[in-house]
Design brief:
alpha/beta, eight-stranded parallel β-sheet, five-stranded antiparallel β-sheet, 20% strand, binds alpha-D-glucopyranose
Length: 445
């Protein structure tokens, strides 16, 4: 796979090293408990929606607990919704009273508290900001999802919204909360190239090292990295720029009472490994409730993921994508310096030998990452004139680590593989983007 083309190497470095972050969708909508699109879905009038602020009092919010949980899970950055599509600012904004400090009995600024706690615990803080959709504001214009029950499109003056709310709020976020890792813009349908460029310039003028995601719009002209579609994992070899998959733990972003359709911990780890093996980051979401608590089931999952990361994190953080241009049936590959990590999902574990074809590099030693004392015996057969390069590992009977076991191959020389599509463990697995359907020649023609 091609090396990632990284434009601004120094400021993007932390991001590509991090590999795993926490997404937090938290807003006034948590009080309704039906996700962050509820205002739009139920066409709730602005006045009625504003009334929720009178009783919104998430006094169980505890920045220390949230940041500690992210750390415990092995996450390296937090992206929190500063303002979502409902237009409610979860910070003290002078640009608009419709914010958590000025219009709720809670009266605290959770982003300030998070910023302080992140600085203490060495966690990167980042802000999500809905720059185009805003159902509360009379002048926001999106190409499809507008508040049409309170406002008339033909009466809208977009630049009232853009110049008097969006730019001032983005400025507040980048001047009052210390260094911000990135601004995560979203759903930019209809934004002009000029406005999108201006937004990027505004961010960079206030904090030159702050990254901007592709959803600022007009990617790849603007944006430092690509936000994939929600829950989307791309094909291997598809990307040449840094990227990230935003992913839900259950089926919702914002708090949704009763949504206990959680992904299993095992499946989240498999997805994270798969993403890392393609050179991307996983941004995994939690949706705290109206009291300011992260749902118990989410906490449990994150701790389980953290247990796995504590033992196997070296195979994720700061790694590069697999050099193989296809996926393996048994798991995935990541690379760091002179180490190749083979992630074997326990469900696919079979005692006996694991054969990898096309592995040209001499291996110095192989061992289990979660228990380096446990060595793995291996054999290498290289027949250059036949183009045969085979590495055969003898696996222990039982998988040595819970959920997914990682074997480290310490290399004796620079990593080289045969990039051709060769058969691996009896199968050739191609992403469909690499496959070509060729009509079989008519036999009797
Ligand atoms: C979508 C949704 C939004 C959510 C986001 C997360 O764009 O509009 O509600 O915040 O995806 O990636």
């Amino acid at each position: 796979m091609k090396e990632l083309m990284v434009e601004n190497k120094s400021s993007i470095h932390w991001f590509t090293e991090a590999r795993f972050g926490m997404f937090i969708h938290w807003g006034l909508y948590a009080a309704i408990g039906k996700g962050e699109w509820v205002m739009y879905g139920q066409k709730i009038p602005v006045k009625e929606y504003e009334a929720i602020t009178e009783t919104f009092n998430p006094n169980l919010f505890n920045a220390k607990e949230w940041v500690s949980l992210a750390k415990r899970a092995g996450m390296k950055y937090i992206v929190i919704t500063a303002k979502h599509h409902d237009g409610f600012a979860m910070f003290h904004s002078k640009a608009d009273k419709f914010n958590i400090v000025d219009s709720t009995p809670f009266g605290r600024d959770p982003l300030k508290e998070l910023a302080e706690e992140c600085a203490l615990q060495g966690m990167k803080l980042c802000f999500y900001y809905s720059h185009v959709i805003d159902w509360h504001h009379p002048h926001s214009i999106h190409d499809s999802a507008n508040n049409t029950w309170d406002y008339h499109l033909e009466e809208k003056a977009f630049y009232h919204y853009w110049n008097r709310l969006v730019k001032p709020q983005v400025t507040e976020l980048l001047t009052q909360y210390g260094p911000i890792g990135l601004v995560w813009f979203d759903t930019s349908g209809g934004l002009s190239k000029k406005d999108s460029e201006e937004m990027v310039q505004l961010v960079k003028s206030l904090q030159p090292d702050c990254l901007v995601n592709s959803r600022v719009s007009h990617w790849p002209n603007f944006g430092d990295f690509q936000s994939k579609g929600d829950n989307e994992i791309p094909m291997s070899g598809e990307d040449t720029k840094p990227w990230e998959t935003p992913m839900t733990l259950n089926k919702s972003w914002g708090y949704s009472a009763g949504d206990d359709h959680y992904k299993s911990t095992d499946s989240v780890i498999r997805k994270m490994v798969n993403i890392a093996s393609k050179g991307g980051n996983l941004l995994l979401n939690v949706g705290p409730d109206e009291r300011g608590e992260i749902p118990e089931l989410s906490v449990e999952k994150l701790k389980e993921i953290g247990d796995w990361m504590a033992k196997n994190g070296e195979s994720i953080y700061g790694t590069k994508a697999s050099p193989f241009p296809y996926e393996f049936d048994w798991g995935a590959v990541t690379v760091k310096e002179n180490k190749v990590f083979l992630h074997i999902h326990n469900q696919k574990w079979s005692s006996g030998s694991l054969r990898i074809n096309g592995f040209k590099t001499k291996v110095h030693q192989a061992y289990i990452l979660s228990n380096p004392q446990q060595k793995i015996s291996f054999m290498q057969e290289n027949r250059e004139n036949e183009g045969l390069y085979r590495l055969q590992l003898e696996l222990p009977e039982e998988p040595p680590c819970e959920l997914s076991s990682v074997i480290v191959l310490e290399l004796a020389e620079e990593l080289k593989i045969d990039p051709a599509f060769i058969e691996q463990s009896g199968v050739i697995k191609l992403d469909f983007g690499h496959a070509k359907i060729v009509r079989e020649q008519q036999q009797n023609a």
